[in-house]
Structure to design on (670 residues):
């Protein structure tokens, strides 16, 4: 009798997987870290790990097309004389002119305006096009202060002081030379074509005590008219939210690590920060303890894709959400119709993230006039408005099923988690149990 | 001349009065007494008025100033004339950190000393300091001129872009990518003009040395990684 050893099939390492190996080789060949756009590509506990319970014996639902489910939200009710009245609780996040083309910024403004919501400037200042096409425009106040001036401050509808971003809490910005056109260079007071580093810390305040004075200054300059937001990257949401309230914020924006960026080191995107799901409850807890929940509004961002994500974020206590990546996709980013061109760039539709190189086939993350001309801002704005409408309808569908006549009436009690991790982060019970890891006993 | 006594009148009233003044308005001179270290005094001025502040102020005095001439007859806290667009701000005493931070235009004159990070991220402002300046001054300075009649602290001009730095005294150390540069005729002329505008007398442009960016960090290069 002969005995055959069964052959051992080739086995790839789960640790040294293809992506890790390729990155080692790339680093060895180039000597420079990988920079890219977008958010983390890791699978993290996310809104998908939560489910709504819907109505039952003890809760009655609302009728789909007949019974009203309100979606409006007012941001900036604490101190500002002119709070922002939004028709839907989904806003467009700050993305810079520079990272995005002029027509792309215009399209965001158009889409947001059609939907009754706000859009936001970014690291690079305000352009006339986006001001003109955005009924409600939030003006970012960033460490770089590129393009910052009192005229634009006064023609903004709100001011967002950016302390951090979820994709890179503690990191500054980067805009590589390829994207520094004459106009971008002029707005940022820098030579054309150089790699621009935006500072990671504000130049004239360092902590919550002097931020409070900075906010006083901004309020005095704008005669206490504008809501002032503070945007923080998901990091220490409980303390950061409490300190933002202490510093005088009208609105706190918490951006989780799934949040997109225009250009950051991959190692930063993938390894620094807290998942969005883990940010919301600590932030809400801080607001509740201070008696400020719903008085200082909470906006959550980072990986929001659809109406279910919106509903879940609101159920966990947010007042509104903000979208970046999804808005770009609605405009036309990573559309399969450009597949041949993505292939020529060594990638594929859905994976293209070299936004910093300025060669975007969809004409969105570029300053190349020919590529930028591919995006029709009117049609793209329309697509964004359609998408926002669908998101809102989806969130309303869920809220009605849970018996709520306003999206803000969604509750943590409406939710359960599919995984222990999500249950612990969202502080809702694991499905089918009463167990909230970290909060209740088994 | 309208006078605002900040021991009696809320700051809001002062700043509101200074905003949106109609062209040709009768009152073009304002006086502030008893500032007692108040923050955000005379911020966001947007008309060619003169504001005299009799005493010392806290943070961000004359922040984002456009067109106005603001004189502090005392010392100024952090961030005086931050993000100034145009006009003139004069501090008769000393200035704390971040004086003239991110300023885009106009002239800031500090008759005493300025603390650390003077002219940080400056974007076109001209700053003339009669005394000394502290460490990390003109960090990431993009444009404009910083003139120091005394000495400069450590890491002057770190990560400098195109701002021009002129120092008459010693420089404790230069920051990353900041180097001494040749003082050419055009710089002497520029400096003479700045000294005159700042009311400096008895000092010659030739007594200064010029510092600027070596421009080695302008494009990311792995072999410069130690400098970042
Ligand atoms: C192309 C792009 C540019 C961005 N630019 C900025 C910026 O200038 N300032 C800022 O605070 N955040 C910026 N962000 C982050 C967004 O404001 C927002 O936090 C993030 O996109 C939200 O996550 P999401 O992309 O998953 O929706 C940018 C994001 C993208 C995708």
């Amino acid at each position: 009798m002969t005995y055959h050893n069964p052959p051992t099939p080739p086995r790839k390492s789960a640790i040294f997987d293809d992506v890790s190996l390729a990155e080692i080789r790339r680093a060895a060949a180039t000597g420079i870290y990988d920079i890219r756009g977008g958010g983390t590509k890791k699978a993290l506990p996310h809104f998908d790990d939560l489910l709504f319970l819907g109505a039952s014996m003890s809760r009655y639902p609302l009728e789909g097309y007949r019974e009203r489910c309100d979606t409006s939200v007012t941001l900036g009710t604490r101190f500002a004389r002119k709070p922002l009245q939004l028709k839907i609780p989904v806003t467009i996040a700050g993305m810079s002119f520079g990272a995005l083309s002029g027509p792309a910024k215009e399209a965001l403004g158009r889409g947001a305006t059609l939907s009754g919501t706000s859009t936001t400037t970014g690291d690079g200042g305000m352009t006339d096009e986006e001001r003109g096409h955005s009924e409600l425009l939030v003006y970012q106040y960033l460490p770089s202060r590129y393009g910052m001036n009192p005229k634009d401050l006064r023609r903004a509808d709100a001011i967002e002081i950016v302390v951090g971003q979820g994709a890179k809490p503690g990191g500054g910005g980067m805009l590589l030379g390829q994207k520094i056109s004459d106009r971008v260079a002029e707005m940022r007071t820098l030579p054309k074509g150089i790699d621009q580093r935006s500072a990671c810390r504000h130049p004239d305040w360092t902590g919550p005590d002097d931020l409070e004075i900075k906010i006083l200054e901004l309020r005095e300059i704008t005669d206490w008219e504008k809501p002032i937001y503070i945007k923080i990257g998901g990091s220490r949401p409980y303390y950061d939210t409490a300190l933002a309230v202490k510093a005088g914020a009208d609105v706190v924006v918490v951006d989780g690590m799934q949040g997109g960026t225009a250009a950051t080191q991959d190692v930063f995107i993938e390894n620094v920060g807290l998942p969005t799901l883990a940010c919301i409850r600590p932030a809400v807890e801080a607001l509740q303890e201070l008696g400020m929940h719903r008085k200082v509004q909470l906006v959550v961002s980072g990986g929001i894709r659809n109406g279910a994500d919106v509903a879940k974020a609101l159920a966990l206590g947010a007042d509104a959400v903000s979208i970046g990546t999804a808005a770009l996709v609605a405009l036309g980013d990573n559309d399969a119709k450009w597949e041949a061109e993505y292939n020529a760039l060594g990638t594929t539709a859905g994976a293209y993230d070299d936004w910093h190189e300025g060669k975007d086939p969809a004409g969105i993350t570029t300053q190349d006039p020919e590529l930028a001309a591919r995006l029709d801002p009117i049609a793209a704005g329309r697509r964004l408005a359609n998408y926002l409408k669908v998101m809102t309808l989806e969130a309303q569908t869920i809220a009605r099923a849970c018996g709520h006549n306003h999206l803000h009436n969604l509750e943590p009690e409406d939710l359960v988690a599919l995984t222990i991790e999500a249950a612990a982060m969202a502080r809702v019970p694991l499905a089918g149990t009463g167990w909230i890891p970290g909060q209740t006993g088994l | 001349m309208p006078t605002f006594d900040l021991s009696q009148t809320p700051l809001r009233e002062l700043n509101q009065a200074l905003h949106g003044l109609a062209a040709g308005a009768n009152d073009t001179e304002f006086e502030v007494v008893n500032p007692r270290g108040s923050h955000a005094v005379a911020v966001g001025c947007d008309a060619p008025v003169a504001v005299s502040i009799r005493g010392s102020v806290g943070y961000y005095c004359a922040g984002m100033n456009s067109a106005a001439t603001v004189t502090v007859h005392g010392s100024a806290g952090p961030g005086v004339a931050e993000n100034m667009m145009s006009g003139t701000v004069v501090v008769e005493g000393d200035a704390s950190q971040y004086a003239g931070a991110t300023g885009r235009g106009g002239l800031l004159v500090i008759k005493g000393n300025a603390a650390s990070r003077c002219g940080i991220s400056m974007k076109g402002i001209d700053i003339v300091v009669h005394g000394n300046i502290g460490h990390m001054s003109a960090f990431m300075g993009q444009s404009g001129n910083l003139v120091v009649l005394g000495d400069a602290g450590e890491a002057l001009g770190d990560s400098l872009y195109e701002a021009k730095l002129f120092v008459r005294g010693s420089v404790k150390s230069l920051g990353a990518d900041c180097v001494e540069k040749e003082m050419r005729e055009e710089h002497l002329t520029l400096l003479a003009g700045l000294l005159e505008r700042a009311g400096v007398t008895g000092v010659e442009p030739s007594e200064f040395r010029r510092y600027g960016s070596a421009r080695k960090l302008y494009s990311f290069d792995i072999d410069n990684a130690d400098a970042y």
About this structure: Chain A has a mean pLDDT of 95.
